[in-house]
Amino acid sequence: MTPQHHKDRVIIIGGGIQGCAAAYFLAKRGQTVTLLEKDNIARHASGVNAGGVRRLGRDLAEIPLSLAAMDIWNHLSDEIGDAAMAFHPSFYVKVAIDEPGHIAGMARAEALQQAGFQHEVWLDETEIRKRIPCLARNISAKNMAGGEISGGLVVEGDGWAIPWRIVRGFADAAVRNGATITEHCHVESLKRQNNMWQIHTNAGDFEADIVVNCAGAWAADLARQSGEPDLPLTAYAPMLAVTERRPQILNAVMGILGHTLSLKQLDTGQFVIGGGVRADADIHQNEAGLSIPELATSMYRAAQLFPDIAHAKIIRCWSGIEGYMPDNLPVIGRGNQDGLVHGFGFSAHGFQLGPAVGEALADLVMGQQPRTSLAAFSPQRFSA
User: Fold this and answer.
1) What pairing do the DSSP bridges indicate for beta strands 5-13 and 204-213?
2) Residues facing 210 on adjacent strands
3) Under a CB-based contact definition with an 8 Å cutoff, are residues 235 and 217 in contact?
4) How confident is the model at residue 109, as a pLDDT?
5) Cα-based distances in Å from 175 to 33, 72, 111
6) Which residue has the higher pLDDT, 168 or 149?
7) What pTM was estimated for this model as a whole?
């Protein structure tokens, strides 16, 4: 039987939020685009993360991209329709519970003001407690020094989303605009030949003018196949836990300055606890690990802020496979090879950026100027 052969203007490899958003923006602009996903849409990092939609705490280099993304999040129904209801804006706060956290928070607020950004605001303890009245009065427990909450950084309008629904929303919107999505399609080889990209997969052969590499933790291997220099991408498994239903006491997404925590309470009353603690991952076996002792540190921190959490049963723990860069900044930009564009390495904080990254990748494919500078994310920054 003759193998299938497909020819496209653009092939996107990877069905996370960046790949699906890129497919959507390209299809919306009339481009012929096919997205290949080796498993299912939103199967890995983009679909199993904590769903934080935050500008708070971003590296200065990421802030313009994060602000551009928030413009899209705030009008998301215009892009993906009813799936946008999976986004729940509220506010995001990181509280200071010790002197180092207080100093860092104040310094951060001042640094952002000097850089011209107004979205992060320092609030004192009184204001924080008005907004979140159920916060514990004293913060102290094993494995962590603490004391009184002395204030915190707040961003209004940040919030959380059900991640797989958002990713699926972009995928469905891409298809409505003419994109093709092929799941369970594993790329086995990628090479440039006769001014075209030749993509051999278990589902047939594909040919494209341009390839967009959004393959997440697998992206460096894909880049290497294409003839790109080695990129220092490492795979880990960020972990999360969810509790049983409890009375509603938290109307924000919370963290602690200087400590690892992401905490929110769903409409169901369940708490989702995470924040970047991670286990080992194996990209070759498609396996994400769990380390309960590591995850327990986030649970302790959550219970310090809200003692009721200490009495809540954990009903599920999970992790996803994510790609991390040494500087914790993503790789977004044109590769060394003609017709190759990269968008990966989001180091467990790429979900909120996804819509703006997808838009920027579409701009790069079409030779247009992205709305924010991508210089800090250049793939070439790791070259000798």
Assistant:
1) parallel
2) 10
3) yes
4) 95
5) 10, 19, 43
6) 168
7) 0.93
Residue 35 one-letter amino acid: L
Comparing CA positions, the residue from 84, 48, 55, 87 lying closest to residue 170 is: 84
Rounded Cα gap, residues 316 and 154, in angstroms: 29
Domains of the chain as residue ranges with CATH: 5-51+164-232+328-382 (3.50.50.60), 90-157+234-324 (3.30.9.10)
The per-residue pLDDT of the chain, averaged, comes to 92
> What is the amino acid identity at position 214?
C
Structure tokens at 354: 């996804």
Kindly report, residue by residue over 13-52, the tens digit of the pLDDT. Answer: 999 999 999 999 999 999 999 999 999 998 888 888 889 9
Measured distance CA(333)–CA(373) in Å, rounded: 10
Integer Cα distance of 346 and 151 in angstroms: 29
Tell me the average pLDDT across 124-144.
79
Q: Which two tokens stand for residue 238?
A: 């960020």
Backbone angles phi and psi of 13, in degrees to 5: -110, 115
